[in-house]
Amino acid sequence: MIANNFFRALGDFFTNAIFPFFEKLRFTDSWWASNTINITLIIIGFLAFIFWMSQLNKYRKGANL
């Protein structure tokens, strides 16, 4: 019962608090306005990947395996 209420509250939060912004973007005619978030997330993911690989490289050099 508690788990059911938790998932209902989680779904309600995402539907009513986060997704209305995306609903506004869905009906825009501009490609750039619609895909700005996707491009931003790709750049953040790429930078996080580079950082992660550099940290792994530092760990490998320090361990002298």
Mean pLDDT: 86
Contiguous low-pLDDT stretches (5 residues minimum) are: none
Provide the succession of SSEs: HH
Q: Span between N and C termini?
A: 51 Å
Structural class: mainly alpha
Strand content: under 5%
Biggest sheet layout: none
Radius of gyration: 20 Å
Note the total helix count.
Answer: 2
**What is the count of structural domains?**
1
Helix amount: over 70%
Number of strands: 0
Apparent shape: flat
Question: Could you provide a short overview of the structure?
Answer:
With 65 residues, the chain is mainly α. It has one domain.
Supply database-style keywords.
65 residues; single chain; flat; 0% strand; 2 helices
Please, could you describe this protein's structure?
The chain is mainly alpha-helical. It has one domain. Helix content is 89%, strand content 0%. The protein contains two helices and no strands. The longest helix is centred in the C-terminal third of the chain and has 33 residues. The protein is flat, with a radius of gyration of 20 Å.
